[in-house]
Amino acid sequence: MLTVGTICLLIEDRGFTTALLGFGENVNLLTLFLLIPLIGTFMSTAGYLSALKEKVQARQKKAGQHPYRLSFILTATMSILLNFGSMAIVKRIANESFSSYKDQALTLTIMRGFATSMLWSPYFVNVGLVLVLFDVSWFDIGGYGLILACIYIVICIVMFKKISFQDDPILIQDEPTYLENSKGTSIKGFVVFCSVLIILSFLLDLLLPVQMLTVVSMLAVVLPICFAILTNIFKPFVQDVSDQVQSAFIKLKNELAVFISAGFLGMAMSFTDMGSFLSTMLFFASFGSVFLISLFLVILATLLAQIGIHPVIIVIGIGSALSPDLFGVSPEYLALVLLVAWTVSTQLSPFSGQVLMTAKLIDKPTSVIVKQNLLFVCLIGLTLTAVLYCFYVFGWL
């Protein structure tokens, strides 16, 4: 990315200052990586996650065990705010709450539940990226993203019975011990905090002349501090944040490098005629069909992800180069297509964060996850693209 970007700048005879500024193109996106984890840190310090686990255990004891359904619901909701952290948290809750389940099937269900939020949550970097890239508001695409997420959930339900790992015996554990939350934290505090965070995110996005990305990043810092003061846990919260900050760079150095380099590449490409060239090539290859253009973008992102090309490179590289006007579509439509492309490609790529984490949680190679998800990914890619095209045909996008 750095090499190609540098060549583009040299060909276009752009100065050193322009190149230097290119490294800051994605600095607003990096705030999501660095600041959103503060929300999870506060929840842990306040005992909200322990309270949630206690609530889940109590429900299982009372209503019977539904490990797959409950794990999917927990991941789909918690991932809205906690991103990748939700997968490990839900897996731990499942291990300590359910006495009988297939471990690999459960973990794959958690991974699929995680992707639900990738289609609409403003706390996800891919959503923030397309908002910046196409200069659209979350309210311009958020509703459509939620509809796509609901359709995605239906497909997950239909495809659940198709999950069949070669060696995945039913894991039978001792009856879980239902312990009282050591901090005595009520689940109501967790609900109140999440509700205030989400409501303020949308309200401030409406009232302030800034992007949702800025609002979310600001709230990730301010709101946990306010709640920590109100709940008298400010000192332990600061200590936990300090511990997190000291290890943040080591944990995120690869993501930071990719996003900084991708921002540099996108900026460099914007000075060339590559955008009109790619747009023209796609237009002729698809015979001018909006549906085929959309499907080609999803397929291209998925194929490139198989060889380790991160979706952010595809979204910034292709997204910043494509011209919605040439295709006769709105920026909102193209933004949603790239959200679908990101979601689909990361569900199948052996290099994506959720596939790597899932493989680690079940101690299996990523190829096992990819093989299990192949039919599922083909179905969601085709279905979600077709639904988006219907929005376009009816004039909604």
Overall domain count: 1
% residues in beta strands: under 5%
List the strand order in the largest sheet: 1-2
Could you give the count of β-strands?
A: 2
How would you explain this protein's 3D organization?
There is one protein chain. With 397 residues, the chain is mainly α. The protein has one domain (2-393). Helix content is 75%, strand content 2%. The protein is built from 20 helices and two strands. It has helices at 2-11, 16-22, 27-35, 37-46, 48-63, 67-82, 85-97, 103-114, 125-133, 138-159, 187-207, 212-230, 234-269, 274-285, 290-305, 311-319, 324-327, 331-348, 353-362, 366-393; strands at 100-102, 170-172. Strands 1-2 form a two-stranded antiparallel ribbon. Helix 10 (138-159) crosses helix 20 and helix 13 (234-269) packs across helix 16 (311-319).
Condensed summary:
The chain is an all-alpha fold and 397 residues long. The protein contains 20 helices and two strands. The protein has one domain.
Record the SSE blueprint.
Layout (H helix, E strand, L loop, with lengths): L1 H10 L4 H7 L4 H9 L1 H10 L1 H16 L3 H16 L2 H13 L2 E3 H12 L10 H9 L4 H22 L10 E3 L14 H21 L4 H19 L3 H36 L4 H12 L4 H16 L5 H9 L4 H4 L3 H18 L4 H10 L3 H28 L4
Antiparallel strand pairs: 1-2
Helix pairs in contact: 1-13, 3-12, 3-13, 4-12, 4-13, 5-7, 6-7, 6-8, 7-8, 8-19, 9-16, 9-18, 10-18, 10-20, 11-12, 13-16, 15-18, 15-20, 16-18, 18-20, 19-20
